[in-house]
Every structure is written in structure tokens, then in C-alpha cells.
Design goal:
The chain is an alpha+beta fold. The chain is built from 4 helices and 12 strands; from the N terminus they run H-H-H-E-E-E-E-H-E-E-E-E-E-E-E-E. It has 2 domains: 84 residues; 136 residues, Rieske Iron-sulfur Protein (3-layer Sandwich). Strands 1, 2, 3, 4, 5, 6, 11 and 12 form an 8-stranded mixed beta sheet that branches. A hairpin with a 5-residue loop joins strand 5 and strand 6. The structure holds FE2/S2 (inorganic) cluster (FES). The site of FE2/S2 (inorganic) cluster has 13 residues, from loops.
């Protein structure tokens, strides 16, 4: 009898504890209900189950709505950031541009270059001079020294033996556009006189390095200049790195 009474008391305590826990959870997590609903709910039965179900589905709906709003906001924020970081420049300066067919760019020896006719062609959309040197161009280097220097200066050797360079039009001194001068077969900046060879190599003037150049490649017979990929690390050449001899004709002022 004593043992049975003890067990009964323990069961009552456990039941009370469970009920209190339920009520606490109720208070914190559940939306407010009317006093009538409260009475029916705690009275049990089918109506209570129906109310409980309704409250549960409303809570799920609210949670899912909040998650959906949060997800949409996050997606929009990430998309906005990516657009700012990587604007869509397809087909514009700042992307890879098809600048014409290989046949549009007649190759020539450096001494024979003429703008728009032989060896040097301007492409406004890419702000680039496409240089096409004949395969029998005389370089000052040879062997691995030549191939290493061609790589360092982003000069592309074509399958027919000719050489291509995409020179950025911007003077590396203070940014003026550099014109090509047929009369002295070289680039001469009108602003402060920086002077560059047909390969873009520095000749004289205040420029701190040689002209910058873009990556150039071929897509079949198309010539592609990637204006998003700039090599701006070609220093003043010296005897061990200069590719082409300076032009024999001086530029008149
Ligand atoms: S901007 Fe070309 S030399 Fe100064």
C-alpha cells in the first residue's frame, strides 16, 4: 500500500511537470488565442485537435513566408553585389572582342608599317592597335631568349610564322592616346613625347615602361582581343630584352 501510494505521488509530480513545461512552451512559442479557444483546447476532443492543427499550419505558413522573404532578399543582395563586381561587358571594351578576320590585317616588316594598310591597324572598339609582323621579321634575340621575351611581351606567334600584338592605345606616362606615325614607323605621344617601337617597346621620353598590351588569340580565322586581360608589366628594354631595333628614321616634332 505504502509503495503504491509512493508511485502514485511520483506519477502526479511527473504529470504536473509535463503540464507546466507544455504551458511554458505554449506561452513562448505559440500565437495568441482567444479565451474561448483556450478553454476548448485544454478541454480536449476533436475541436481541440482542429484548433491545434490550425495553429500549427498557421505557424508553418508564417515560418515559410519569413524564410521565403529572407531568401529572396538575400538572393537579390548577392545578385546586386555580383553585378557591381562583374558588370556585363559582353561585346564592349572590357571584354573579349572579335576585331576582324586574320585576312584584314596584312602582315609587314616593321620598316614597312603603314597605319591601316600594312602591319598596324587601329580598332576603336578595343582601343587597340593590332600589330601584325611578317614571319621574316628580324629580331635582336634568338632561341629561348626570343621565345621567353615574346611571351613576356604578349607577342603571339601564328601558325604561319607571323607575329601578332594587341597594343593598348593609352600612353603609360599620363594616359594620352598615342598615334602611330608612318613617317617614323613608331608611336609618338603628342603630350610629352614618349616614343615607342612597333612592338610597343619604349624608345625614349618620360614613359616609365613600354606600352601595355592585351591578350590576343584566334577563334578560327577571327582575331580576338581580350580587353579584360592587360599586360602592363613590360619594362624599358635593355640589350638582353629588346626585341626589335629602333627605327632608323627619327620622328620630326
Ligand atoms: S602622356 Fe604620353 S608622354 Fe605624357
Amino acid at each position: 500500500m505504502g509503495v503504491a501510494l509512493g508511485e502514485y505521488v511520483l506519477q502526479l509530480i511527473a504529470a504536473d511537470k509535463t503540464e507546466r513545461t507544455t504551458l511554458i512552451t505554449d506561452d513562448v512559442n505559440r500565437p495568441q488565442i482567444t479565451p474561448q479557444q483556450y478553454e476548448v483546447l485544454h478541454g480536449g476532443g476533436a475541436e481541440a485537435a482542429e484548433i491545434a492543427k490550425e495553429r500549427l499550419s498557421r505557424r508553418r505558413f508564417l515560418r515559410r513566408s519569413m524564410l521565403a522573404v529572407w531568401g529572396l532578399s538575400t538572393t537579390a543582395a548577392v545578385a546586386g553585389s555580383l553585378y557591381m563586381l562583374y558588370p556585363n561587358l559582353a561585346g564592349q571594351f572590357g571584354s573579349a572582342l572579335n576585331v576582324g578576320k586574320k585576312a584584314d590585317f596584312t602582315a609587314a616588316k616593321p620598316s614597312d608599317f603603314k597605319i591601316g594598310q600594312a602591319g598596324v591597324f587601329y580598332r576603336q572598339e578595343a582601343k587597340t592597335y593590332v600589330m601584325h609582323l611578317a614571319k621574316d621579321t628580324q629580331f635582336l634575340l634568338n632561341g629561348s631568349n626570343l621565345s621567353d621575351q615574346l611571351d613576356a611581351e604578349s607577342v603571339v606567334k601564328d601558325s604561319d610564322g607571323s607575329y601578332w600584338i594587341a597594343l593598348y592605345q593609352r600612353c603609360v606616362h599620363l594616359g594620352c592616346t598615342v598615334p602611330f606615325r608612318d613617317n617614323c614607323v613608331s608611336f609618338k605621344c603628342p603630350c610629352h613625347g614618349s616614343h615607342y617601337n612597333v612592338t610597343g617597346e619604349f624608345l625614349d621620353g618620360p614613359a616609365p615602361r613600354s606600352l601595355d598590351r592585351f591578350a590576343l588569340s584566334f577563334n578560327g580565322e577571327d582575331v580576338v582581343v581580350d580587353t579584360a586581360t592587360l599586360n602592363n608589366k613590360v619594362p624599358h628594354p635593355d640589350q638582353t630584352t629588346r626585341l626589335i631595333a629602333p627605327p632608323s628614321v627619327a620622328c620630326s616634332v
